[in-house]
Amino acid sequence: MTGNIGSGFRSVDGELFSKLLHCLDFMNELAFFKAYKSHSWRSLLIAPEQVILDVACGTGSDLIHLAEAYRNTNFVGVDNSEKFLAIARERAACAANLKFMLGDGHRLPLVDHSVDAARIDRSLQHMENPEAVLAEMVRVTKRGGRIVTCEPDWETFVLFNGEFDDSSKIAGLFKRSIRNPFIGRELASLMNECGVKHLDAHVHTFWTNKLNDADVIFDLNKVKDQCAAAGMMTQDDADTWWALSKQASERDTFFASLCIMEVSGTTE
Q1: In the prediction, which pLDDT does 94 show?
Q2: 127: which residues sit within 8 A by CB, 6+ positions away?
Q3: Between 20 and 30 A from 156 (CA), which of 105, 111, 183, 218?
């Protein structure tokens, strides 16, 4: 059985590309994601004539919005997915204050102290060496510049449809598909070690009572089958869990939640 969305983001241009793209586009339209993203943008303290970097920018949705809102500020997006960058460039429609670059977050294609602020959003969780990526963000940011990070802590991932045991198993399997499941709680410590000071933290809590929404974001239909394939439950139990979840969703009693940690600070 192929991987799920949780592991798929490690290699975006692979066989799950269409599902990953749909997941990102879907989340970007939800009120929660719009709200926490806006908060993280404010944490950048964007000003005219600055250069703002978005690491692992994906399809560029955040930068496209920012380039429109701050026309006198320059924005740079770096991503290692050629497919995502092709979509980003098409959607950006040649915005004069926005450019995209192919590159690895572990080795950013920028010179030292060349940007005023750098941001990464929900991507360190998938990266091989988050501390190295943060160190690169600090390297390319001017002294006194801003670093902003947003990452989930998958220990806070909760599913509930009226049943406890199988819900916990399904949530647990998805957590284990994430390369760095506890990166949210580690952010402040890692940033401090990389020379980011005057740290400020915010916790943004996502929740939904709609199974369809949770399935797009967390790939639950596939994950429950993966639990069965791994011998964590029978296939009948997995199918029963799905049926119970559909019933709970229809009654607005289904529950899925996750905390996203935002940490910001200033380079020395």
Answers
A1: 79
A2: 56, 105, 106, 133, 179, 180
A3: 105
The residue range of the domain holding 116 is 5-267
Considering only CA atoms, which of 267, 168, 179, 183 is closest in space to residue 227?
168
- Strand 255-267 and strand 115-121: the pairing is unpaired
Q: Is the pLDDT of residue 1 over 80?
A: no
For 196, the 3-state DSSP assignment is strand
- Host H or E run for residue 78: strand 74-79
Closest listed residue to residue 211, CA positions, set 252, 163, 155: 252
If one counts every other C-beta atom within 10 angstroms of the C-beta of residue 71, the result is: 10
* Cβ–Cβ under 8 Å, residues 260 and 151: yes
Under 8 Å CB-to-CB from 8, ≥6 apart: which residues?
A: 14, 16, 19, 20
Per-residue pLDDT of 123-167, as tens digits, reads 999 999 999 999 999 999 999 999 999 999 999 999 999 999 999
Residue 144, sorted as left (phi over 0), alpha (psi -120 to 50) or beta, turns out to be left
Residue type, 86: A
* CATH for 254: 3.40.50.150
> 98-102 and 74-79 as β-strands: parallel, antiparallel, unpaired?
parallel
What is the number of domains present in the chain?
Answer: 1
In angstroms, rounded to a whole number, what is the distance separating the alpha carbons of residues 177 and 224? 13
The rounded radius of gyration (Å) of the Cα atoms in the chain is 19
Neighbour tally for 250: CB within 10 Å: 11
The candidate with the shortest Cα–Cα distance to 241, out of 216, 210, 220, 217, is: 220
* C-alpha separations of 184 from 47, 210, 259 in Å: 27, 25, 8
